Amino acid sequence: MKQYFKPVLSMILCFAACLPSLSLWAAEPEQPLVVRVRAFRGTATNYDQTKEYKYQVLKLILEKTEKTDGPFKIQAPQQELPQARDFEMVKQGYIDVILTSTSKEREQELHPIRIPFDKGLYGYHIAIINESDQPKFSAVRTLADLQKLWAGLNDVWPEAKVFQENGLNVVSTSGYRELFAMLKERRFDYFPRVAHEPWRELRDMNIPGLVVETDLLIYYPTPGYIFTNKNNQKLADRLERGFRMALKDGSFDKLFYNHPDMKEVFEKANLKNRRVFELKNSSLPAETPLSDKSLWYAP
Q1: Are residue 174 and residue 195 in the same domain, yes or no?
Q2: CA 270 remoteness from chain centre
Q3: Is this model's pTM higher than 0.85 or not?
Q4: pLDDT tens-digit profile of 154-186?
């Protein structure tokens, strides 16, 4: 009987000795997918990506596919680079995604996820102006009136081309923060901003005398997309599947309508009562899903 138990006991002891290594092997976590993005606007002192709308959108749609595609980690540098440099870094594969407005050129260079993460709010523009100039803007009644004024824009932004094609005067520069200083110095009349941007930007810049214009709304159809490198089809597929899931279960709309940046538009912008100047957008790609009204915000 003792002889019978000796081999069995040896097997048990051997198995027990292997348990630590087996448990370590079984417990080893799956490595997360690292998604590198361009820096979300901010500084070292006020940078808080958890409150950034673009970050929240990206996080939400990646979470939707976490069960099927595995964990993820979003990496965002704190130092913001010029947007043209970021586009080149996505093309070269140093950055994985960029969230920004679309154009024919951008869709040729990168792969677009054709679901507007902003519900088309990128097409609604409200101006930042010098406070004393409000009467001048209140007097604008026609496109011809608006064409007498000068807008300040970054020369790589699609807005610059759209404004110029519609006969609007543009002063362009390669910077962003410089535009606020140039406006203050009256080197142009207004700084058109996407509808959810001006209040936050004025708080960040804190330049006395600059305010949000109260009467006018410049609109042309243009969506904000998530762009990936054309060769990163696996990530693009995951992002689109996750986005479709977030649309279907209502979680994207919940984020959009309740995020502080967006709520500020609905509470302060008074979009329904502004005088609308609708521009033509020749840079809008033919593939833009304009017919799917569920993807677009309408005041």
Answers
A1: yes
A2: 23
A3: no
A4: 988 889 999 999 999 999 998 899 999 999 999
Residue 20 lies in a domain: no
Identify which of 203, 159, 228 has the alpha carbon closest to the alpha carbon of residue 43: 203
Instruction: Quickly tell me which residue has 């002891």 as its tokens.
Output: 13
Dihedral, 111, 114, 115, 116 alpha carbons, nearest 10: 90
Q: Domain boundary residue among 188, 219, 250? A: 219
β-strands 190-194, 124-130: how paired? Answer: antiparallel
Q: What values do phi and psi take at 175, rounded to 5?
A: -100, 180
Q: Write out the DSSP string of 146-162.
A: HTTSEEEEETTSHHHHH
Q: What percent of the chain has pLDDT over 70?
A: 84
Q: Within 13 Å of residue 215, how many CA atoms lie on the same side as its CB? A: 12
Residues of the chain with pLDDT under 70: 1-29, 40-51, 78-84
Question: 56 and 260 in contact (C-beta within 8 Å)?
Answer: no
Structural domain of 260? 33-120+223-267
Contact call for residues 216 and 143 (beta carbons, < 8 A): no
Residue 168 and residue 205 in one domain: yes
The total number of structural domains that make up the chain: 2
Q: Is residue 156 part of a domain?
A: yes
Sign of the Cα torsion 211, 212, 216, 222 reads positive
Cα separation of the two ends of the chain? 87
Q: Which residues pair with 153 in a beta bridge?
A: 172
Assigned domain for 185 exists: yes
- For residue 148, being part of any structural domain is answered with yes
